[in-house]
Amino acid sequence: MTIQVIYSGGTIGMVDSPHGLVPGADLAGWLERVLAGTALAGQVRLHELAPLIDSSNATPADWQAIVDCVRTSADDAAGFVILHGTDTMTYTSSALSYALADLQVPVVVTGAQLPLGALGSDAAGNVLGALTAASNPANKGVSLFFGQHLLRGNRATKASSWSYEGFASPSAAPLARIGAPWHWDDAALAAHAFRGPQPLATPKPYTRQDVMVASLVPGITAERLEAMLTPAPKAVILRAFGVGNGPSAEPGFTELIARVVKSGTVVVVSSQCHQATVLLGAYETGDVLAQAGAVGTGDMTLEAAYAKLVYGLSQGLTGARLAEFFTRNLAGELEA
């Protein structure tokens, strides 16, 4: 059994420099020492992407570089571990879940809050946990291991910049909790294995797309929102209140949303709540958005919704076709 580790950068392999932390640790030597004497010694191979990046600099091109690397090794690897920076880890794990939906082996994304050389670092524990998860053939699809939990990759969100339990899955149960032995959730694994209809038999690569994210706040005017949407993006995610409510009494607000949709921009409504299911018809303040042509995210995370829009646009979908595609459950990112 061979597990392919793909190192893309991030805190886990960083070292001090005059300008702060930068990639540069001897990850290969460290990994060999960590695995020495374990059942995985000699069973793990490492590939480093170039250039290594801080994940705050990640773009859809970096998502695609990981996808391509996985595809290259898919025939002779029993599983994959992606070492990634924590800042945009859940955007990447969501993106991978769509582009690798057909893959029949585990892909586990992980990283660390402290560099591998720091006293008390969580690097070794997270890597060993991710390798354990990648060794379980029942764990099909893209997952995220961090701290004590294995989460579904497109259901996770970063919850803390410092805690060793840095990620949460507010609307979906963890796939597993570590322990002696690990406790796997069979129902969560079954939901994780869900695969819906894909837009293309062979997905086109991720490319950078004009998708905007805008948060609604009390007192925002239609004029300010219109300025933010000029020139019009291909899609916009409105981070609304509660179950997807907006300021319907604000003069010109609903008319603006209707004009934006009519112009061909897909308007997606998400919630600012950490845990929510967007129901645009539950209140009048949300129904007006639905009547204007907006669609809701359901219980998707912001990261899953954003990556899904970029994925759809990268496949050539726009306007009404993209909006319809967005509402489909592709890889378990929505409650089925």
From TrEMBL:
PANTHER family assigned: 60 KDA LYSOPHOSPHOLIPASE, L-ASPARAGINASE
Phylogenetic classification of the source organism: Bacteria, Bacillati, Actinomycetota, Actinomycetes, Actinomycetales
InterPro entries the record matches: Asp/glu_Ase-like_sf, Asparaginase/glutaminase-like, Asparaginase/glutaminase_AS2, Asparaginase_C, L-asparaginase_C, L-asparaginase_I, L-asparaginase_N, L-asparaginase_N_sf
Taxonomic source organism: Actinomyces graevenitzii C83
Domain of life: Bacteria
A Pfam family reported for this protein in Swiss-Prot or TrEMBL: Asparaginase
Binding locations of substrate: 55, 86-87
Protein name: L-asparaginase, type I
Domain L-asparaginase N-terminal as annotated: residue spans: 3-184
Single GO MF annotation: asparaginase activity
Domain Asparaginase/glutaminase C-terminal: 210-326
Residues at the active site: 11, 86
